[in-house]
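Shipment paperwork, digital attachment
Item: protein structure file
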Amino acid sequence: PALPKENELSLSQVGYAGLTARPRPVATAEALKTAAIGDEIKTSQGQRRRVSLADGSVLFLNQNTEVRVEADRRVELLSGEVYVEVSPRDPKAKAEEGSPTFVVKAKEREFSAFGTKFLVRASAGEAKLLVTQGKVRVSGFEDLVLAGQQLKLGKAPSSAEPSVRASHELE
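Attachment content:
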């Protein structure tokens, strides 16, 4: 029998450590479905969900989250937290219609993405933005929020500030 490499565990070591192999969960047809305009997607306590959009962008909904797909490249966060990976704009559509940036609406604000990955959290009376890649324009806020910055929007005026490590902020 071959000896395990230095960084590998043998089956006897795995069994001894109390680790057991488990099959990966099989994705349901609903989980693989692309969300259409008008769809409302909800998650409950302890549930997270990955949702693909028609333009190729991906939404990651945290628990207790509700979003509505309003239009192509436009969603409304009704409650909770959504992490967005925006797909590049279609060059043909950009030439024809000036293809819009990707917009998330939350708490009477619009977050317009420019080739980016970002998190929007909507809670009682406030919204929070964390940009992990690219930049985001926020309605009612003068400056762009850049990668590595966060913005808390409540009743009082605020400014973008350096964010904590994104992995600490993304639950």
